[in-house]
Amino acid sequence: MSGVAVSPSEQGRALWLSTIAFTVCFAVWTIFAIIGIQIKKDLGLSETQFGLLVGTPILTGSLIRLLLGIWSDQYGGRVVYTITMLSAAVMTGLLTFAYDYTTFLIAALGVGIAGGSFSVGVAYVVKWYPKEKQGTALGIFGAGNVGAAVTKFAAPVIMIAYGWKTVALVWAIALAITAVIFFLFTKDDPDLARRRASGQKPEPLSAMMEPLKNIQVWRFSLYYFFVFGGFVALALWLPRYLIGVYGLDIATAGMVGAMYSIPASIFRAYGGHLSDKYGARTVMYWTFLVAVVCTFILAYPPTQYVVEGIRGPIAFSTRMGLLGFMAVAFVLGFFMSLGKAAVYKHIPVYYPDRVGAVGGVVGLVGGLGGFVLPIAFGALNDLTGVWQSCFWLLFVIAAVSLIWMHLAVRQMEKAAAVAGVPVQNLPELPEMQPIHGVALAGALAATGAIQDWRPENKAFWDQTGKAIARQNLWISVPCLLLSFAVWMVWSVVVAKLPSVGFAFTNEQLFWLASLPGLSGATLRIFYSFMPAIFGGRLWTTLATWSLLIPALGMGFAVQNPETPYWIFLGLALLCGFGGGNFASSMANISFFFPKSEKGNALAINAGLGNLGVSVVQFVVPLAITAGVFGALGGAPQTATVGGVTSTLWLQNAGFVFVPFIIASAFAAWFGMNDIATMKASFADQAVIFRRTHNWIMCWLYTGTFGSFIGFSAAFPLLSKILFPEINALQYAFLGPLVGALARAGAGKPCDRIGGGRITFWVFIAMSLGVGGVLYAIGMKGDASAFPVFFASFLFLFAATGVGNASTFQMIPAIMRLEVARLEPQMSQPERVKQSDKEAAAIIGFTSAIAAYGAFFIPKSFGTSIAMTGGAGAALYGFLGFYLSCIAITWWFYTRPGGLLFDTEHGVPASPASPLPTPAE
Predict the structure, then answer these.
(1) Which domains does the chain have, with CATH numbers?
(2) Measured distance CA(320)–CA(298) in Å, rounded
(3) Dist. CA 142–CA 809, nearest whole Å
(4) Angle between helical axes of 32-43 and 101-111 (0-180°, round to 10)
(5) What is the pLDDT of residues 294-340, one digit of tens each?
(6) Fewer Cβ in 10 A, N or C end of the chain?
(7) Major facilitator superfamily (MFS) profile domain spans which residues (predicted)?
(8) What is the pTM of this model?
(9) Is 128 exposed, middle or buried (0-12, 13-18, 19+ CB in 10 A)?
(10) pLDDT digits (tens, 9 = 90+) for 436-446
(11) β-strand partners of 313
């Protein structure tokens, strides 16, 4: 950006008006994706002719980009942008006078002028922003690709009502109005203003064309051929494809096609951000890897198979349903949008004074992909007669691009190793090596883990830390919520298995409800150390992806009553992946916040994450009553309860979470951060096993969280057994909901009042709650028995929720005092760092031990019922445990002289003061 002063309002106006203008231009540029279908029908065109028709505007828009980009650098983007839009508006209006295939092709050449606006907008926008913000600015501008989705949504409705000519006129008028508004409300870019003020003349055309002699510009453009050219080609082709493959009408085809166009457009801005954060090369690798997988899936045509089996032929077929197509298209579009941003991120860095020219030629090559590919798609259809052949071609392009890029990168790195050149001095992509100077080293590399993290420093926290911490927290919450949902899904499913034909005993059903708690608790022991070893971002991503295994496995297993019991046992154990995630999630989030906000942050993460239990007990009973996934989800089951027959899709209990798991895993990978100071080996963290308070807090947290998760797992089945006349499933979600919301809301009071004092009263409340449940069981047969039973459990859930927050608030406070006492040789910053590490590890480890409540509480109820015929024995055992927790909390923490007494009563604690704990 030039030295001319620019106000933020001028920057914003230039960016957003340019983006809106590009959106309208792109809508016009892809107009033939919709009106071309009617024109094909009217003129009786072949698939190849149709491909040429929809691709012709792309040809003009591509070829003109180079010249328009150069003119923008010479004369200013504001004037060139306005003239471009007005010219395209006139040509789009003249489209209504075409009468045969030749005149339509000629008119389409004129409509294509709208596509040239991209290079103009890039050259105009980039001059308003400094280098460190150009990637994001260009990403936002490039999101104007969403104009393709605008055409798909709006054009079919207008065409059905008024005909294709009206569509052309409306689009032409909209573009002309946009041109006028753009010209009136924007200013000349700072570079042009500087040149005019100094009397400097524009550089000649020959100087502007100079960078185009470099071969790397053209090689680099080939990446854009796929990520942008492929996007444009599919945006044009998909409505026709969807009508042919799925028999959709034009309006529905347009809306479904938008499932590809929207993510392939609006996430381009995010791609610029990710390129800054993780490196352009990483984004390109992900783009091509995912594109190869998606295009391979989409390329597989419906096929009938016959296998000669032992007992005769076994026939089956493969066919992707519409929902599956939409899901894969969405993912493909999302990653292509990231790739587009990663490519253009390089241009202002390497060619700051030739953005229009270089951006024009890269856009030209990319746009040519949008012209060539639709024609190739049509030709392949005519040659092969297979609709999926278009994806064959895209698969080959993506695979070749990925292999070529990887081999080029490896060759560059090997050559650098031989020459003794450090890897960090190399460009992200080898195409840029001939022009990659010392000043550009690391310019596009990943920023990696956050090296400077000082949340206790108020200035740092207010300016930088708070926004990063909150972003990580709000991405962590849905990942944790889904983890709890998958962990507790058996608590709902087991109650339905007998009704659909599974001959399992009550004891077997209690085992299924209990085993996720056993495996989840065991995994937590290991998971609690993983964020510090692997990094919170990587581990959260992997842990979230792992939820797909039990979710999909359950969905397939419950469809056949002949499925062996041992498979269900295995799946129940695998659901423990969800339980294990809590330990790593809490350990990770604890690093991001200062001491004064840890309690609230952990309460929000855990409390809203705990909502997954309530979500599963509310959503699953609804999801299993409808064929949410159509043919993709499998056939329904017939359920019989009390002689009443109904239809259930029990597999939806697992399948319903799959799309959300995928979305959350991507969000974790692309949106979360690693903190360099978090890194620690298992040996570093193992010091917690020598800390007495680690074991004391394990006992107390088992009393709070162990009760919450154990009662959540046991309540639906326990209610069904004790009160068979009540449909308790419709109320089961309320208990976990109350507990989760209580936890989320208790964070700030705990930070203000003190976790120890609140924990003490929580265990008194829980003891009263157990007494209420025992009283209700004794009333069995009375009309008010179930209401008292249910109300007592709700009170218990609320108390556990508050206790979950208060116990976790205690841990960082305890370790600040303990590390100061036990490690006096450390400096104050070292003590803070060490106490944070130990507190995070203890939070994870205590959550692991407490999670065994998800196994022991349901199992205790099952054993109590089997041995005594009632649940009373188990409840008396829980009551005794809570009484011990009251005594422990008072003795060690809240009595005068207790560890937290001075801190929670406003008296600064002395590390040297006597403590009611044994020496370590």
Answers:
(1) 8-196+206-419 (1.20.1250.20), 451-680 (1.20.1250.20), 681-906 (1.20.1250.20)
(2) 8
(3) 45
(4) 170
(5) 999 888 888 777 777 777 777 766 777 777 788 888 888 888 888 87
(6) C
(7) 13-413
(8) 0.56
(9) buried
(10) 666 666 665 55
(11) 308
